[in-house]
Amino acid sequence: MEIVVAHTPDPDDSFMFYAMFEGKISTRNTYRQVVKDIETLNREAPSGTYGVTAISANGYAYASDKYALTPSGASFGISYGPMVVARRDIDLSSAVLATPGRYTSSHLLYQMFGPKPAKMVEMRFDLIPEAVQNGKVDAGILIHDEQLTFQRRGLVKVLDLYEEWKQYAGELPIPLGFNAIRKDLGKEAIDGFKADFQASIVYGKEHEDDALKYSLRYARYSDIELERKFVRMYVNELTVDFGERGRRALRMYYDRAISMGLLPDFDLEIV
């Protein structure tokens, strides 16, 4: 069966799919890839556009009728997560704050743990650091490898959302990005994708340099050591299978958001 897989250009995503798309492993299904930014994929997910899609923990709440999460390929922050940066230390309650999109995990985490700003402005995530630097906004929520480069622009961290999460959830990792598969593909195709994807992640981890070179095709930066650092942050011990620890973290994430009226109630399904 051919399955269309939509993923982001972020190095951790392309790293995980390297072996599948480059024929490094034998696969049960055939795959065709589509590459789009995460907020675009979040917005498309409720329509069931792709067989498999990258999706934010937040975005999944609006697409759970069509998709189930896979236990492989998730990005959990084990000791790090989204952050808010500004040109100097400021009061966020009076700030114009740039967000990478209302369906991103970082947006919801800010709503759960940050002070309500004067205004929130949606902006493509990789444009946020420059917008903060140039004064178009007072502060911005950073995700992906922008978390590793903001200091080059003279920006400072004013809120660490992982630290706020830790106060709430203890040592549980912070849920960020996932892969979701359409339920109507059927058990055989779903099981095949799960096996293929898990094998692809394991292969990438065992052939890190080759997988990193592949991921640079899509990356915003050409510095392989920078991307290695980023990939190791988010392709971690929970990526092959996030297990019960990941499930507990997800339950705490969704319970808080639903209780605060930030997400609709929904059924979480993990295949």
From TrEMBL:
Gene3D superfamilies for this protein: Periplasmic binding protein-like II
Active site, per annotation: 144
Keywords: Lyase, Menaquinone biosynthesis
GO annotation, biological process: menaquinone biosynthetic process
Entry's EC annotation: 4.1.99.29
Catalytic activity annotation: cyclic dehypoxanthinylfutalosinate = 1,4-dihydroxy-6-naphthoate + dihydroxyacetone
Pathway: Quinol/quinone metabolism; menaquinone biosynthesis
MF (Gene Ontology): carbon-carbon lyase activity
Function: Catalyzes the conversion of cyclic dehypoxanthine futalosine (cyclic DHFL) into 1,4-dihydroxy-6-naphthoate, a step in the biosynthesis of menaquinone (MK, vitamin K2).
Family the entry assigns: Belongs to the MqnA/MqnD family. MqnD subfamily.
Protein's name according to its UniProt entry: 1,4-dihydroxy-6-naphtoate synthase
Organism of provenance: Thermogymnomonas acidicola
